[in-house]
Amino acid sequence: MAWHALTQSWAIPAALFGVIWGIFGGALPGISPSIAMALLLPFTYGMQPVVAVVMLAAVYVGAEYGGSIPAILIRTPGTNAAAATTIDGYEMNRQGRAGLALGISLSCGLIGGLFGLLMLIVMTEPLARVALAFTPPAYFALGVLGLSVIASLSGGSLLKGLIAGVVGFMVATVGTDPVSGVPRFTFGEPDLLTGIRPILVMVGLFAVSEMLIQVTEPDWTKTEQSGMRLEFPDWKLWKRLVPGQAIGCAIGTFEGVTPGAGGTVAAFMTYNEAKRWSKHPEEFGKGSPEGVAAPECANNVVTGSALVPLLSLGIPGSNSAAVLLGGFLIHGLSPGPMLFERTPDVVYGLYGGLLVANALMFIVGLIILPPCLWLVNRPKPYLIAFILALIFAGVFSIHQSMFDIGLVLGFGLLGYAMRHLDLPFLPMVLGVVLGHMVESNYRRSLVLSGGDHTIFLQDPVSLGLLIASIALMSYTIVRERRAAKQTAGVT
Amino acid sequence: MTLSRDAIAGAFVAALALGYWLVADDIPRSLLADAVGAEGVPKVLGILLGALGLALIWRGIRRVGERGADRARWRVHARAMGLLAVGLGYIVVIPWLGFAVTTALLIVVAAVYAGRPLGRDLVLIGAVSGAVFWFVFAKLLSVSVPPGSWTGLWMGS
Hints:
heterodimer; A: mainly alpha; B: mainly alpha; flat
């Protein structure tokens, strides 16, 4: 089915374009995978659903490799997840082994990406099958479980995470009331009657706010690497890299499936564990090839495993997964239990697309280094100007609405303020995406029960999910307090 | 005394919560409404956000002087707001100048604002980019882009 979905559409060319776009985006410092994906999101509107999600997923795959290019060459990680690669990658560059560092990053990224895809295929469908028996109270509880993830997405401050989550939920209440049809918070503006689309929130928060930040910061360092060629590890070195990659696969799977953890945490944890288990720990930090292989493998595993909670339960556990969710929503698809029943072609097409995207990443990665170096060296003012033009034209093309561009600018301003006030984005995105589901199923459940709130405790699935939400919240709070105490003890 | 950033953020959040709650309280009650009503969940959210905002103010007051609102940062913020104004200008100008010209103008103005000196090459890049954007969106993607009122004047004459 995956093959059919791919070959009967423009999915493979879209995957190629997505990988190239992702590598370029990842290679530009400040353009994270989620921003690179968000910039393309408006353009997916007129595409077939399978083509759109494959392209967005391919951007994610490409960006994770692209992020390692400036990390190795100019000591500036193109993505957060590539920060761990900077430590040994840049040291290898200083020793004249940049080509080998990039070759290790590319080959280990391919292995990590394929392993992550395998985990996605193995874990998603069984989880989604369990969720098929859901009723309105269970859907409400699932939304609460999704919102409880906010605790682990708060970046160290639960209070700020909750504020961002509630603000997101408030954005979701704009528009026509799902039960009575009364307009809410529309202020007489017809464009608001259908609500604020998550895509506008995401493009504003991630992309526009980044441009506002970039315009206030100095240009990034230039690199002179003309004539550089990729170099792959020989068999002897490859054997040495295997343990680090195995650690990367294990940690990348666990951290990817855990909402809020993501590629950055996975890469740093893997780096530490690879150093601990290495036969040459003294080389770490001084240009160790294992120090590049392990984190690069881990953050590419996450490109697959992070999609498990999204596809099976509809819960985005990372910024990139949230943008991919936006891609699903644009086409009227709701990731979660029913996705496998209603649109299996999209799911299997996505699996096939990820396989193709990983293969294309390897092929494109072999030839794209010179244009990437050219792009990294472009003056930042041009990049800001072109990205802004792309955002406006893309957002306008969705509904030919100038009002939408105004909203995106508004959310860009909000995102800028949130960055300066250390308020995290992802809880807000979760609030926007899950708010409608939580409210409408809460009220539907109460209509069914005649206003009796015990319906949420009588339904076994709902009860289980609510207990899981409380357990997840408690675990995160305890973990954060313990970490805060340890930090206080050190200082 | 310098207020910490948390206290300032908390004040904004509390004000937002109050405004949101007042608008929620004004939502008309429909005959089709359920027990919760269209205003039920928003009012709870308003109260919750207000409480969280007050908690943030309290945390900020306890940390007075820790990380104050740096006056020097206002210049940085003003620079960011300038780029936002360029974006708003795009919305204002596009009905008159149309998609291609406004996009070209946006690229030139944003690049100059971001630090690129205005020169012939930049104007040329802007003009070519405007034409390419128009071709991609209007022709390839068949998006109905604003032609601009000046094209009407041209046609009229």
